[in-house]
Amino acid sequence: MKLKNETGFTLVELSIVIVIIGLIVAGVVGGQTLVRQAKVRALVSDYNKQIAAINAFRLEYDGIPGDFDNAAAYGIGTSGNGDKNVTPYNSEMIYAWAHLSGAKLIPGAYTGATAGNPFNQIGVNIPESSYGNGIAIYMSHIGITSNCLQTGASPLFGRVDDVNVLTFARPETTGNLGCPRVGFLKVSEAHGIDVKMDDGEADSGIMYSANTLATNTPGARCVDSAVGGTGGANYDFTDQGENCRILFKF
Fold first, then answer.
1. pTM of the full predicted structure?
2. Closest to 197 measured CA to CA, from 121, 132, 250
3. Where along the chain do its domains lie?
4. Residue 107's Cα: distance from chain center in Å?
5. What's the pLDDT tens digit per position in 144-191?
């Protein structure tokens, strides 16, 4: 019995298929990279918008959002204590967004309520950044001891000066729920923002980069040493994870 000729793919045909698959994979990976880069750039836009809102609030009310001690009289939320520091944890850092939204300086409406678990609830009393993926924007002071920002009796980064900051971070999901202590950016991404907006140094200028740990202890995560505002810490480019959170003084 005569069998029919059975032929498979030629080498040329297989090569064409492999090339097409490679192009598809490259397109998908390249597209993901572009999306992530756009999200990182959006953080810069967020910072500029929030700083503009904070400055407008200062001009209008002669106070700092969250700390403003006459907010209730103006009907824009619970009053702070007026000491020029946005108290961290579950008080003035929550009032801040109610003050700004109540003054119509940012879109949306925030409750200013500190109850709940976690007390920071994205879209309820704190805003989500344009980065998305549960990355929130926090406003607080870093020279005050608070379980939300650090452990023990040491202020965040060991600093004791009066510095209020905007922090971009992922909320903690264990321990102090909702606290801004979890990194989400690659070192190259945080450094890129730093170069664009500041001095490119993790530990000086208006922008600081920190790792996920509460006291920013070094450990091959984002920075090579504990950040103290003295210029002693550097970006750790050997870290290939997504461990950087970023803070901006205002």
1. 0.80
2. 250
3. 39-249
4. 19
5. 445 565 433 344 454 545 578 898 988 877 766 677 778 899 999 999
